[in-house]
Amino acid sequence: xxxxxxxxxxxxxxxxxxxxxxxxxxxxxxxxxxxxxxxxxxxxxxxxxxxxxxxxxxxxxxxxxxxxxxxxxxxxxxxxxxxxxxxxxxxxxxxxxxxxxxxxxxxxxx
Length: 110
Fold this sequence. Notes:
Elements: H1 2-11, H2 15-40, H3 43-54, H4 57-64, H5 69-84, H6 91-96, H7 104-107
């Protein structure tokens, strides 16, 4: 709700503001899913994982819902990529503190 409030205060209260934001977040999430899969598998397997995620009915449904699921999913993919890649491995550990990633609870509690 806070993210949508910030978006609406900047871009206006149009219904399409939230929809476009969710599409952008879903695209970023797919990019980091591909990059994470590419760290462990070949390009063909990464493309298959991307296709399964992109055409999954749940992914399509959650992109069209104005909720916190897409934001949570994008941040989770970003965290997974940063943990598994060698260059950014300690950034989210420093931000998250001892209990790992408590800021995700602020976005999605259940």
